[in-house]
Amino acid sequence: MAHQINLLEKIQQTSEFIKQRVSGKLPETAIILGSGLGALVNHIDIEVEIPYAEVPNFPVSTVEGHKGCLIFGNLAGKYIMAMQGRFHYYEGYSMQEVTFPIRVMKAIGIKTVFVSNAAGGMNPNFRVGDLMIITDHINVFPEHPLHGKNINELGPRFPAMVDAYSPRLVKLAKDIAKEKGVRLMEGVYVGTQGPTFETPAEYRYFWRIGGDAVGMSTVPEVIVARHSDIEVFGISIITDLGVEGAVEKASHEEVQKAAAAAQPIMAMLVQEMITRM
Ligand code: HPA
Prior knowledge:
Shape: globular
Bound molecules: hypoxanthine
Number of strands: 9
CATH topology: Rossmann fold
Number of domains: 1
Distance between the termini: 40 Å
CATH architecture: 3-Layer(aba) Sandwich
Strand content: 15-25%
CATH class: Alpha Beta
Radius of gyration: 18 Å
């Protein structure tokens, strides 16, 4: 009981802080920028930038390549919010901490969230540098972000996860890619705790259970976004391959490099989607 009241109070406190900092100018779209995907920020006409360290109740992001800033500004002519850097479960944060920003987004009026990440590809059709629209996910995290007594003010006890990734936005992305002649894959994202990259046997396992790509984020945030009835669009950059018989040894540096190379296309796609939404 105590933790529930606590969470609601924290959400309220943090959202009030943000509302003040942006002088009541509130976006309806948010973007979570994953590993090495911060370059989209260069396209934002920034109005307000708040380091996570200044945001009450926000944990501080620690991992290399994650800056840790909330950004408010204009992207493709629309006022949006961006999270530069996210909180990963493998860093030691609780599921409640990992997903707290989503609760705050809901409280300030966010209706749609774009989630990006770097992922390893199991699908043999994938190449390093490919973009994959997430059409569905498989949750293999050891803890669930909605574990515990449900807080009815935040969402239902048993939220549906069918069409968790907005079919409308998947279609929009595919239409844009087709129009622009951009190679765009689609598939199922497996969310795992990390921080180890997969063994060849694990990549094979994830492929066999229906995954196309695997990464260490996104699934907790998407679950909480759907619990909060926020529309979701997810996109992965395939930074390394876990294709059966041809598994490469992944490294953080390689992941960052491949993510950086694919960023211009991702930035184009996201901007075009935001323009047309
Ligand atoms: N596995 C898990 N997470 C990842 C990978 C991977 O191969 N690549 C980037 N993030």
